[in-house]
Amino acid sequence: MSLTILAIESSCDDTSAAVFQDGHILSNCTANQDVHEKYGGVVPEVASRAHQENIVPVVHEAIRQADIQTSDLDAIAFTRGPGLIGSLLVGVSFAKGLALSLDIPMIEVNHMQAHVLAHFAEAPKPKFPFLCLTVSGGHTQIVLVKDYLDMEVIGATIDDAAGEAFDKTGKLLGLPYPAGPVIDRLAKAGSARFSFPEPKIEALDFSFSGLKTSILYFLKKELKTNPNFIEENKHDIARSVQDRIVSILMNKLKMASEQTGIKEIAIAGGVSANSGLRKAVEETGRELGWNTYIPRFEYCTDNAAMIAVTGYYKYLKEEFTDQHVTAVARWSV
Question: Domain 4-116+300-316, what fold?
Answer without folding.
Answer: Nucleotidyltransferase; domain 5 (3.30.420)
